[in-house]
Task: inverse folding
């Protein structure tokens, strides 16, 4: 499994519509509306890097309203939730 975080800039009036279209994609597990330099963060989880490329250059580019993207490919995942499961003793 490969995970990528895609930081997106959008036309302001398209945020709600683009968010819904992104979350409807099978490759996208979560979409966050965020404050700061970017408008949205989309989490992509797929089998390989080629699927990340196909999703971003193919499916994302078909959406009207996205003005720019920056993609971060995750090397490792560190999660408090995962660590808690590893160390729980069946409570």
Result:
């Amino acid at each position: 499994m490969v995970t990528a975080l895609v930081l997106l800039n959008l036309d302001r009036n398209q945020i709600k519509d683009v968010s819904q279209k992104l979350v409807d994609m099978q490759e996208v597990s979560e979409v966050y509306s965020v404050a700061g330099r970017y408008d949205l963060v989309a989490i992509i989880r797929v089998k390989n890097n080629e699927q990340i490329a196909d999703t971003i250059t193919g499916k994302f580019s078909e959406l009207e309203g996205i003005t720019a993207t920056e993609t971060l490919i995750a090397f490792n995942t560190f999660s408090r939730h995962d660590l808690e499961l590893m160390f729980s003793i069946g409570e």
